[in-house]
Amino acid sequence: MNADAINLENQLNKIYKQAVTEWQVSVTTPFSPKRSDWDINNDCKLQSAGTGMLSNYTDEMNKIIGLWLENHVALKEEFYLFLIDSATDDNRVAYKPLNRQFGFIFMDKLPFDAKLAQYMAYELGHGAFHLRHSFVEYPSLTTGSTDNLMDYGNGTHLTHAQWENIHNPEAMIPWVQGEEEGANVFMPEIR
User: Mapping DSSP to helix (H, G, I), strand (E, B) and coil, where does residue 161 land?
Assistant: First the structure.
């Protein structure tokens, strides 16, 4: 295991320790499909918003996932995060729909002092455990006002209800959710 994987695994396990949950992290060599194979609008950026009616991913995200699956097997119990150089939506730092296996982190959008593992933990909360934003679960909260992992602040706290959901995720139909719901770990890099 390389140093990046060990560091990310330690940070993720520190965040999820409060819910008695551990991760195993693997980092692959960069996955570099030809841009012409996925960049539908030729803007050199991944479409990060505008998913289709029956898809939780944009057409370009679906292309990247498909290209990756041509040479890899996605195991049911694993979650995959692609680190993307650049994305189209200026407000979106990452995207992983609830109850879905693949997610994307947009490296050009990460705040200067951001911790990659914290964004990974947040997106894995959506995908692996179906955790919703804290301000959706509790509408009286203001966005970014708490130290909860699933808020837009810098927190890592999880509530008891979230712990319960982590150990028994609610059943859901993945395509019946909006993009905003998603706005062992494996991270193929796209360069």
Answer: helix
d(CA 158, CA 166): 10
Identity (one letter) of the amino acid at 4?
D
Please give the C-alpha separations between residue 122 and each of 11, 20, 39, 44, 157, in angstroms, as whole numbers: 12, 16, 27, 26, 11
- DSSP for 19-70, written as a single string: GT----EEEPSPB---HHHH-TTSSSSB--S---TT-SS-HHHHHHHHHHHT
Whether pLDDT at 85 is above 90: no
Q: Are 15 and 129 in contact (CB under 8 A)?
A: no
The partner residues of 82 in beta bridges, in order of sequence, read 104
Q: Which among 56, 52, 114 has a CA at the least distance from the CA of 83? A: 114
State the pTM of this model: 0.83
